[in-house]
Amino acid sequence: MDTRADAPRRPWPNERWSRIPNWVYTDPAVFQREQERIFEGASWLYVCLEAEIPRPGDFKRSQLGTKPVVALRDGDGLVNVVLNRCAHRSAQFCNANAGSLKEIVCPYHQWTYNLKGELVGVPFRRGYHGQGGMPAEFRMEEHGLQRLRVSCRNGVVFASFSDATEPLEQYLGPRQLASFDRVFDGRELELLGNLRQRIPCNWKLMQENIKDPYHASLLHVFLVSFGLFRLDQRSEVELDETGRHAVLISRRGEQVANEATQEMRNFRADFALEDKRLIDPQREFPGDATVAMQTIWPNIIIQQQSNTLATRQIVPLDAGQFDLAWTFFGYRDDPPELRQRRLRQANLMGPAGYVSLDDSEALLISQWGIDPNPEADMLLEMGGREVRNETHMVTETALRGFYKYYTEVMGL
Ligand code: FES
Ligand SMILES: [Fe+2]
Fold first, then answer.
1. Residues facing 191 on adjacent strands
2. 259: helix, coil or strand?
3. Which of 47, 156, 352, 382 has a CB 3.0–4.6 Å from the CB of 396, allowing a cystine?
């Protein structure tokens, strides 16, 4: 029996991974343990795109789990990720979302750090007229900002709090790495814009949502009616060996009624777009997939829906709410017409996106059902009780994979 103070009040159900107890979405002790074991544990956490901090001195604020951080590019062109906490008395020294600076000066007592986070200045360190100041044995080099391990791959910045995290390529595994490299293929990225929304539900529901192809065919009028992502299309769900990462791949279909659409209440054969350019895709990646939605443990979704590309960073705030930070991008060498196409298709996404707003609402009503019923379980049996790759969408296999790894890491 688990006797730790933060142990959950009720054991995990016997049907592991096909039943998820509702208390994992509500219990503050579970949330606390997630921060320690997942976000501050052996994970690579998405921070930002390198294109957001292209020049020396550029910085971008980010948040990894509940820990605020700053990513900054130093004079050597390298990316550093430091805790947004002054080594003096913990002030959060950076309060702009992004910008450029020569050095970091904490507003409170003006301790100064260079772009690598090393302490380079302490006002009145030697006192004033022989009075006060820091003790003689005070060592500047012992009081820099806390730096995280950083790994950049093809323009994407990841950081880790733990020395035990394996190299990023190994962490992703060969299949997920291939999917990552399909979008981040080494071409220089171009930032197209940021969106941010707060969703009042547990952060894991967001991971589940993107790992869940079943809902996409039923909830989203837009995806179903215009054939952007529907379960009668040729599809795959692929997981890494641990189950923690997954990618959902599909190919665009037509707006035709068939045996499958009969079970989709939200299929509207009579709906038409005034301006069809909104969803008009242009082939740009190898292979015939038109949608690839990748979830990388624990805080990042990589979206390729037609030509709209984005990262979505999950920032848990407490057990009952998280922020979703969207970063839309293209490639530096995109012709203007393709850039325009990406921006037009971005209307499907974000807090008010024609597709994504359905998800925000689905997450909200899920939490509304969970909160008053902590003793109930989620049922994840679509497609069986196994964790394995599938070549169809009528499955919750990727959600089971997530919880297979989750229970391992959390010791539940
Ligand atoms: S708290 Fe930052 S300088 Fe004092
Ligand atoms: Fe969705």
1. 329
2. coil
3. 382
Q: How far apart are alpha carbons 115 and 133 in whole angstroms? A: 25
Q: How far is CA 72 from the centre of its chain?
A: 20
Predicted confidence (pLDDT) per residue in 276-293, tens digit = 888 888 999 998 898 999
188, 121: one domain: no
Q: Based on the structure, what is the number of domains in the chain? A: 2
Smallest CA-to-CA distance from 184 within 55, 294, 102 is with 294
Q: Which CB contacts under 8 angstroms, 24+ apart, belong to 349-355?
A: 349/195, 349/303, 349/305, 349/308, 349/310, 350/195, 350/197, 350/326, 351/195, 351/197, 354/222, 355/220, 355/222, 355/223, 355/228, 355/305
Same domain, 329 and 367: yes
CA of 89 to the centre of ligand 1 (A): 5
Beta bridge partners of 278: none
One domain for residues 143 and 188: no
Name the residue at shortest CA distance from atom 1 of ligand 1.
89
Nearest to 325 by CA among 301, 306, 348: 301
Q: What are the C-alpha distances in Å from 14 to residues 20, 56, 339? A: 10, 53, 50
Each residue of 242-264: pLDDT tens digit?
999 999 999 877 666 777 777 77
Enumerate the β-bridge partners of residue 45: 159
Residues 306 and 358 in one domain: yes
The answer to whether 376 and 24 have CB atoms below 8 angstroms apart is no
Question: Would you say the CB of residue 126 lies under 6 angstroms from ligand 1?
Answer: no
